[in-house]
Amino acid sequence: MKMVLQYNGKRTYEEILASVKPVPLKVVGANVPNWRSANLLILGDNSRVMATLLKEFDFSGKVNLVYIDPPFATRNTYRIASRRGATISTGSDDEVAYSDALVGYEYLEFLRERLVLLRELMSSDASIYLHIDSKIGHYVKIIMDEIFGPDNFRNDITRIKCKPKNFPRLGYSNIKDIILFYSKGRRFVWHEPKVGFRDEDIERLYPKMTPDGRRYTTIPLHAPGETKNGSTGKPWRGLLPPKGRHWRCAPEMLDKLDAAGLIEWSSKGIPRRIVFADEAYRNGKRLQDVWDFKDPQYPLYPTEKNLEMLKTIIRTSSNEGALVLDCFAGSGTTLIAAQELGRRWIGIDNSHQAIATCLKRLTALKPNIFAQADFVYLEARDD
């Protein structure tokens, strides 16, 4: 069953596509041939810029991965204290980076408009990761269900954003936000993400040790479900699998495992499969839906996100050479991650301070990157 939010000023999907007008894009600096196939950094209202990409430059269905970190409807104004080396400040004398002023249904429609445009830009096998907080995120999920379909919801990822807080408050301390992960369709790019085991994980998960110091654990040799006719339901070494279960492999394979010393027999004669830690964690373990990627302690720009988190998303949900889009580019972390991982990218933001930060970080990746046209800088102008 599809859930929808009803609120004042809500337009249909078709009305949004028809009403958002393109805006001319002007290349800043040297005119670069074939810039439409280059990496693009664009200053301008992301809604109108995306309409331009859709309606005038044929980017419909060309974007392979979207990550966005939009405003959170906090009513806050975020500033950059340039006198203290780009630390974050609320001081009235400091430079405004952006204002998170929209709230309520105006905020929801603001975000919904952009999600509609993003969906049109996305390829059939693309995914979108939307970074939000838990105060507004539950409403945003309903909107994403409406636009992308509840069947295309993949994960609600909990992201640990900071160290534990110890100041008093009427409620539990908030150290997390959420990332809503959707695909556009049933088939989407997916490269299994793996993370390394910590020493304490290995000691906990592999508590046993061989005489030569090799850590291991044991698992049952049987699995749920009866097999009445197959060999995995037959006796092995005079034993039947427990009622309602079957051997994980045929008795002849169990003989081979036993001969190889990979079955441990308990004092009561119960066999279990040996799993060695060094073999299990050689390729890491699956990444779960709680991520510990804390924000930079000294960000260049307000709400700057963790670079390794963005690299994890890009590695997992795109192929090399794919096109990654972040229409709330901010400090440019998505663009940096995409550049370093060999993906193409488009970054859009309407903050001059955000674009300046992106330019600074991108040009620092290697000497003269801007001059060599590894990316093209454009501005949206109505004049």
Textual characterization of the structure:
By secondary structure, the protein is α/β, with parallel strands linked by helices. The protein has two domains: 46-193 and 287-367, Vaccinia Virus protein VP39 (Rossmann fold, 3-Layer(aba) Sandwich); 199-280, no CATH class. The protein is 26% helix and 26% strand. It has ten helices and 21 strands. The chain has helices spanning 13-19, 46-55, 104-121, 137-148, 199-205, 251-259, 277-280, 307-317, 333-340, 352-363, and strands spanning 25-27, 39-43, 63-68, 77-81, 87-89, 95-99, 122-132, 153-160, 176-183, 194-195, 208-209, 215-220, 222-224, 245-247, 263-265, 271-276, 285-286, 290-292, 323-326, 344-349, 375-380. The strands form five sheets. A ten-stranded mixed β-sheet has the order 1-21-2-20-19-3-7-9-8-18, sandwiched between helices. It has a four-stranded antiparallel β-sheet with strand order 11-12-16-15. Helix 2 packs parallel to helix 3 (104-121), helix 3 (104-121) packs parallel to helix 4 (137-148) and helix 8 crosses helix 9. The relative contact order is 0.18.
